[in-house]
C-alpha cells in the first residue's frame, strides 16, 4: 500500500512513492541514497539515524515515512549552505571531535536542533543535550567543547 | 515482518471507527517512539497503524479556569518548554524535561506516553501527583477516568482496543504548594529506574499534606498513600521525611529486571522520597534530575 508523498529534502523538493508505515530512515538511505543518516540500533536508543524535520531533531528509525509529507527534512548532507560548512561542522573539525565518525552526523544534527531551541545554553545543558546520542569512542569531551565554541560565540 | 495497513484520518471519529473495524488488530500511533521500536523488534504485529498525527482535536494546551487541558498529541517537548506549565505545573514540566533523549521529547506525546504505561516512564507519576483526569473517546462517545484508575497493570491501561485518550485535565494545584519530579537513571537516554513526583501543600504546622507518586517500583505507577497519610499536618522534620520514605518503600512492589533488582528499586524509593520532598520544599525549581 505505497503512497506518494511530497516533501523537501536538503532544500530540494521531491515526490516519492513510500511505504507509509516504514521508518523514514529507509526512505532517506535506500530511496534517496543519503547515507549520512546512519543505520545504528534501529530501536531509538543510539541516535545515529538523527535527521531534522522542520528543524527539530528526530530519530528517523522511529519516524513514519508517511509523516514526511509536506515537511522539510535535513540530513547532514544538507547542512552546509552555499559551500560553507555549518558552524557546528566546522567546530567539530576544529576540535577534532570525532574518532570513528559513525555517530557524528547524528551528533551535529542533534546539536543544531538543540541550539535552535536553546540559543544561549549553559554548559550543563549542552552536556545533557549531547547525552541524547551515544558515542562509543570520543568520551564526548571534544564534542562538548565544539558545541560550546559555537554556542558561546 | 508483515507491513501493516496505514491510515491517517483527520477526524477523531474516523480513528475510533477504524480501531473498531480492526478489532484489537490495529495500533494507534501517537508519537511512535515506543510503537515503532516494538514493530521493529517484532513485539507487535498489527494489521494496521492508525496515525493520529493529523487529528486537530487531539492537539492543544490551555490553562484556564483552574484546569489545565493538555491534548493527547501534545509533545513532551511542548510541555517541557511551555512557560505556563513550567510555572503552574512544575512537577509535570520537570517530568517532561526528564524524558530521555531530546529526539524522543521532540516526537513523543503525553497521550502516547501514558497509554504505553512503560515501566519507568517519567510523565505518569507526575500525572498521578497532580490528580489528572483522562478523557477517553470510544464508539459511544467520551468518558473520563481518574488517572489512578487509568493505569491498570504492567504496560496496561483501562483503554479498550477501540478507545483513545483525547485529553488530560489537570486541576491547578492549591496555593502555597510546590512540586518536583526526581528521576534516578544510570544514563541520560534511559528510562527511570525509579521516578518520584511530589506535590506539597504548606500549612501552619509546616506541611499540610503531600502527594507522592512513584514510578518504576511496581507494575504500575502508584500513590504512596501511607507515606502521604503520615505527612498530614506535621512539622517539617528529617524524622517525618525518613518515615515517609520507609512507608513508601514498604508500599512499593518492585520487580527485578535487567536494569535493577527489586531490592535496589525498593532501596531507591526509601532514599529518593525524602530527597524529592526536600527538593519540592526548596521550591518549584528544585532539582529535577
Under CATH at level 1, the class of the largest domain in chain B stands as Alpha Beta
Order of helices and strands of chain B: EHEHEEEHHHHHHEEHEEEEEEEHHH
The assigned CATH architecture of the largest domain in chain A is Roll
Instruction: Kindly report the oligomeric state of this protein.
Output: heterodimer
Distance between the termini of chain A: 49 Å
Give the radius of gyration of chain B. Answer: 19 Å
Helix content of chain A: 25-40%
Relative strand content of chain B: 25-35%
Strand adjacency order, main sheet of chain B: 4-5-10-6-7
Q: Regions of chain A with pLDDT < 50 over 5+ consecutive residues?
A: none
CATH-scheme architecture of the largest domain in chain B: 2-Layer Sandwich
Shape label of chain A: globular
The biggest sheet of chain A amounts to: 5 strands, mixed
> Mean of residue pLDDT of chain B?
95
Give the percentage of residues in beta strands of chain A. Answer: 15-25%
Count the DSSP helices of chain B.
12
Summed up, the domain count of chain B is 3
* Chains forming the largest contact: A-B, 33 and 28 residues
CATH topology of the largest domain in chain A: the name is Ubiquitin-like (UB roll)
CATH topological fold name of the largest domain in chain B: Uridine Diphospho-n-acetylenolpyruvylglucosamine Reductase, domain 3
Please give the order of strands in the largest beta sheet of chain A.
Answer: 2-1-5-3-4
Amino acid at each position: 500500500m505505497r503512497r506518494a508523498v511530497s516533501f523537501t529534502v536538503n532544500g530540494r523538493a521531491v515526490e516519492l512513492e513510500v511505504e507509509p508505515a516504514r521508518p523514514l530512515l529507509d526512505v532517506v538511505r535506500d530511496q534517496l541514497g543519503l547515507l549520512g543518516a546512519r543505520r545504528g540500533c534501529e530501536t531509538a536508543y543510539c541516535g545515529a539515524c538523527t535527521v531534522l524535520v522542520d528543524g527539530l531533531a528526530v530519530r528517523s528509525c522511529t519516524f513514519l515515512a508517511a509523516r514526511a509529507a509536506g515537511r522539510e527534512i535535513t540530513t547532514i548532507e544538507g547542512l552546509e549552505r552555499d559551500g560553507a560548512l555549518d558552524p557546528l561542522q566546522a567546530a567539530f573539525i576544529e576540535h577534532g571531535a570525532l574518532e570513528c565518525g559513525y555517530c557524528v552526523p547524528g551528533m551535529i544534527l542533534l546539536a543544531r536542533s538543540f541550539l535552535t531551541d536553546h540559543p544561549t545554553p549553559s554548559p550543563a545543558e549542552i552536556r545533557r543535550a549531547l547525552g541524547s546520542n551515544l558515542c562509543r569512542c570520543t568520551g564526548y569531551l571534544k564534542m562538548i567543547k565544539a558545541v560550546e565554541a559555537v554556542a558561546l560565540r | 515482518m508483515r507491513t501493516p495497513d496505514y491510515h491517517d484520518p483527520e477526524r477523531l471519529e474516523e480513528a475510533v471507527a477504524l480501531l473498531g473495524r480492526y478489532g484489537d488488530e490495529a495500533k494507534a500511533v501517537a508519537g511512535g517512539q515506543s510503537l515503532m521500536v516494538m514493530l521493529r523488534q517484532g513485539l507487535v504485529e498489527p494489521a494496521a497503524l492508525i496515525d493520529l498525527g493529523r487529528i486537530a482535536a487531539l492537539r492543544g494546551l490551555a490553562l484556564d479556569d483552574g484546569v489545565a487541558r493538555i491534548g493527547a498529541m501534545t509533545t513532551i517537548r511542548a510541555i517541557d518548554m511551555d512557560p505556563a506549565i513550567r510555572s503552574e505545573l512544575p512537577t509535570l514540566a520537570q517530568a517532561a524535561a526528564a524524558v530521555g533523549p531530546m529526539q524522543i521529547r521532540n516526537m513523543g506525546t503525553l497521550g502516547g506516553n501514558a497509554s504505553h504505561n512503560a515501566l519507568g516512564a517519567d510523565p505518569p507519576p507526575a500525572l498521578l501527583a497532580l490528580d489528572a483526569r483522562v478523557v477517553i473517546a470510544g464508539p459511544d462517545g467520551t468518558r473520563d477516568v481518574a488517572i489512578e484508575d487509568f493505569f491498570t497493570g504492567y504496560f496496561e491501561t483501562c483503554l479498550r482496543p477501540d478507545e483513545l485518550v483525547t485529553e488530560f485535565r489537570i486541576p491547578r494545584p492549591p496555593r502555597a504548594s510546590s512540586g518536583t519530579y526526581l528521576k534516578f537513571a544510570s544514563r541520560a537516554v534511559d528510562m527511570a529506574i525509579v521516578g518520584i513526583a511530589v506535590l506539597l501543600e504548606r500549612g501552619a504546622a509546616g506541611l499540610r499534606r503531600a502527594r507522592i507518586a512513584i514510578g518504576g517500583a511496581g507494575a504500575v505507577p502508584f500513590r504512596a498513600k501511607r507515606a502521604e497519610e503520615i505527612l498530614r499536618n506535621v512539622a517539617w522534620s528529617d524524622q517525618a521525611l525518613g518515615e515517609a520514605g520507609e512507608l513508601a518503600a514498604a508500599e512499593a512492589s518492585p520487580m527485578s529486571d535487567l536494569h535493577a533488582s527489586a531490592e535496589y528499586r525498593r532501596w531507591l524509593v526509601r532514599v529518593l522520597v525524602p530527597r524529592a520532598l526536600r527538593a519540592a520544599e526548596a521550591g518549584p525549581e528544585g532539582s529535577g534530575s
